[in-house]
Every structure is written in C-alpha cells, then in structure tokens.
C-alpha cells in the first residue's frame, strides 16, 4: 500500500493554503504555514521562478488547466489519495446518478479513514489511516484494516474490543467530544462506535474544494 511520506507542510505551500493535514498541530500556532514571514512561492528548486513564468493567455497560475489541476491535487492531498485511486473514484462517480462532482466528494467522505476522522476518533486523516491499518476498527462486526474501504449508509464502525484498553482509546472521549460529528454520521462515544446514517450533503463537505474544476479537469 503506497502513501506520501514526504514533508506534509510542503503540500500546503504548493497549494498556497492550509490543508490541515497535521490535525491539532495546524491549529495550535505551531504550523510553519503561520510563520510571520511565510514563503509565498511554491516549494522546490524552481518554485520561486514559476510565479513569473507566462504561458498561453497570461500568467501560468491563471490558466484554466492550472486551476483545474491544482484543485484536483488539493482534493487528493486533503484526503490522502494517490493518483490512480483518485481516477477510479472519479470513474465511479461518473457512472453513478446525480452530479458527478458531488458524487466524487461523497465517495471520498465515506472512506473508512475519513469516517474515523469525522467521528472524532483521530485528530487527522493521516492518524485515522494509521489506526485503521493497525486493525483497531471493526466494520459491521468484522475487523477491517483497509483505509480506502468505502462505507455505505447503514454501516457501523466500532473500535475493536481488544483495542479499547489502550491508553489512546481510554482517554479519547475527553478530546474527541469537542469536535461535533456531521449529521450524516451517528456517534456514540460511550460505545466507541459510529454509524453512517446517510450520504453527506454538500455543505457538510470541505468547502475549500471546487468540485466543478475537478470534473472539468477529467472532461478535457
């Protein structure tokens, strides 16, 4: 199973905004993106020069293709999905009913690692992915260690009995209850469980994303 292992703050710099990939560290003032003099150019050897290159109808950063590409990359990085997997999610959304962009975001939201994060059982999607990979959760009573598993309405996620005694889960409710779960998820901190009550509405999904640009990118 592949995943990005490089510096996370580099991804935020590349997109020019905070993606909140480190959980609590992004909120407590220690985030490098919040430094007094943040770097206003992309990372890499040619990051500074790229701001001044021109192509086509104007500045490179203003071209339609660049805006579409950056939006797709931002969605990938927020949810921790690699390129081929993201393409498969788009193809699945394209085959489904309704708006393709909304269907794509709903699929990403219903990934097991994202559901664990949304329920408040992890401070970031990266931590949720690690907890799932280590086998700490059951889905509908069965141990599931696949972070990309897409849940359906009615599915139940629960911390395994063997993991409840660990210090992380025994103190989880103190920190996790401060984060409200979205209405499409039902959470029971006493039982360390959650249930997918339905599909997420658009206003309950990351508002920083413009799914129409992603659809335009794949429709070229």
Return the CATH topology of the largest domain: Ribosomal Protein S4 Delta 41, Chain A, domain 1
Largest sheet: 5 strands, antiparallel
Number of helices: 10
Q: Per CATH, which architecture of the largest domain?
A: Orthogonal Bundle
Low-pLDDT residue intervals, each spanning 5 or more residues? 52-59
Q: Considering the protein shown, what is the CATH homologous superfamily of the largest domain? A: Ribosomal protein S4/S9, N-terminal domain
Please provide the count of β strands.
7
The total number of structural domains is 2
The CATH class assignment of the largest domain is Mainly Alpha
Helical proportion, percent range: 25-40%
**What's the rounded overall pLDDT mean?**
83
**Structure classification:** alpha+beta
What shape does the CA trace take? globular
| Separation, N- and C-terminal Cα atoms | 30 Å
What radius of gyration results from the CA coordinates?
Answer: 19 Å
What is the H/E order? HHEEHHHHHEEEHHEEH
Strand neighbour order, sheet with most strands: 4-3-5-7-6
Strand content bin: 5-15%
